[in-house]
């Protein structure tokens, strides 16, 4: 992107008949600095580039607009819970939507000098057993500096670590899928139509499992999916916390206890029971008893709507935050922000006014 800035700066300066000295005086820098900007030796700071844009009567984003679209390919697609989409047209639509969104995201990230590279915390770690899953979850929490605390917002956490999350709302029978773009950019797609907050969090982390976990060749497809489920549960509720919350030698569980854990850690009651079972906290007989109790609660109309709710936003935010900051810092015009967001200018202006108050910068 720095070379693109250099090329455009020189072309625009010459087109406007500015000498190096004249532009330097307009901007308030040395003539040699403009020369170095143009040959790509150094890159201008954001503040300097804003002044250059004003002097040459263009928008800041002009210097980052690339006439050649990013060449992106969405590959290695994995579907949540083995849901396969038989409609090839729909799968192609998802790929196109993902690549279109990512292209705009990359352009905006370059403009805002806010590009994140994804680093897999589990590189070189092979998964073969349930114990490996427990260890993998703890490694991620440690490297991402989460500790044993509840993850307040899973989507925000993933975005901050360089995972691109895309939300769609389709009737097709899937809750989420994941894949890689150009073999290096991790993508998680979440279907809003089928996702409660707890399910959305679990699905996102299941898909993260497909991205970061390297499985032993002996692991079957069915076991792989179970491992990804276990991984999601272990990320949301580590075994040490499970023991602290429920105590030892439990054979029965109350709805109030399950609701408390659900509301604190953002994990569904079903997933809590599965987590207790797969982590070895309860044996097979106790697991069956807990499921029986849960099914009885669930079949009782008076309890159906009283299973607790986790309060979390769980919406993609990074793109919107960059738009707000870009307009506030004069790196983006309203029209450019609308173009990137694929919205009308008046709609974009209204949303930005609201986001200025609602989005943490």
Description of the molecule:
This protein is α/β, with parallel strands linked by helices and about 350 residues long. It has helices at about 1-15, 20-25, 30-40, 45-55, 90-110, 130-145, 155-160, 195-210, 220-235, 240-245, 255-265, 270-280, 285-300, 300-305, 320-330, 335-340, 345-360; strands at about 75-80, 125, 165-170, 175-180, 185-190, 215. The strands form two sheets. Strands 1-4-5-3 form a four-stranded mixed β-sheet, sandwiched between helices. About 30% of the residues are buried. The mean pLDDT is about 85.
Given helix and strand content, the structural type is alpha/beta
Using the alpha-carbon principal axes, give the shape.
elongated
Strand content: 5-15%
Order of helices and strands: HHHHEHEHHEEEHEHHHHHHHHH
Strand order of the largest sheet: 1-4-5-3
| C-alpha termini separation | 24 Å
Low-confidence stretches: none
* Rg over C-alpha atoms, rounded to the nearest angstrom: 25 Å
Q: What composes the largest sheet?
A: 4 strands, mixed
By DSSP (H or I, 4+ residues per run), the number of helices equals: 17
Average pLDDT level: 86
For the secondary structure, the number of strands is 6
The portion of residues assigned to helices is 55-70%
């Amino acid at each position: 992107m720095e070379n693109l800035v250099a090329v455009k700066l020189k072309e625009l300066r010459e087109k406007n008949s500015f000498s190096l000295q004249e532009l330097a005086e307009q901007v308030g820098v040395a003539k040699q600095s403009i020369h170095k900007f143009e040959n790509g030796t150094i890159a201008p700071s954001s503040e300097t580039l804003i002044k250059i844009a004003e002097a040459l009567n263009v928008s800041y984003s002009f210097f980052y607009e690339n006439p050649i679209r990013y060449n992106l390919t969405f590959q290695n697609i994995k579907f949540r819970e083995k849901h396969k989409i038989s409609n090839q047209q729909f799968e192609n639509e998802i790929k196109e939507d993902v690549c279109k969104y990512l292209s705009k995201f990359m352009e905006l990230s370059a403009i805002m000098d806010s590009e994140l590279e994804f680093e897999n915390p589990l590189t070189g770690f092979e998964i073969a057993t349930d114990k490996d899953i427990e260890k993998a979850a703890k490694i991620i929490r440690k490297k991402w500096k989460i500790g044993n605390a509840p993850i307040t917002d899973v989507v925000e956490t993933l975005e901050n670590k360089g995972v691109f999350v895309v939300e769609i709302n389709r009737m097709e029978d899937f809750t989420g899928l994941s894949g890689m773009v150009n073999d290096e950019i991790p993508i998680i797609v979440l279907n809003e139509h089928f996702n409660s907050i707890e399910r959305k969090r679990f699905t996102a982390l299941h898909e993260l499992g497909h991205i970061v976990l390297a499985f032993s060749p002996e692991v079957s497809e069915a076991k792989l999916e179970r491992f990804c489920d276990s991984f999601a549960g272990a990320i949301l509720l580590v075994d040490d916390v499970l023991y602290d919350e429920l105590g030892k030698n439990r054979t029965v569980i109350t709805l109030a206890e399950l609701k408390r854990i659900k509301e604190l850690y953002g994990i569904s009651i079903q997933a809590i029971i599965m987590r207790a079972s797969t982590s070895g906290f309860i044996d097979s007989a106790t697991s069956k008893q807990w499921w029986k109790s849960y099914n009885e609660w669930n079949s009782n109309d008076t309890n159906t709507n009283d299973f607790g709710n986790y309060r979390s936003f769980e919406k993609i935010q990074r793109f919107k935050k960059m738009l707000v900051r870009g307009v506030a810092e004069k790196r983006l015009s309203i029209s450019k922000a609308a173009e990137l967001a694929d919205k009308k200018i008046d709609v974009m202006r209204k949303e930005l006014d609201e986001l200025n108050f609602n989005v943490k910068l």
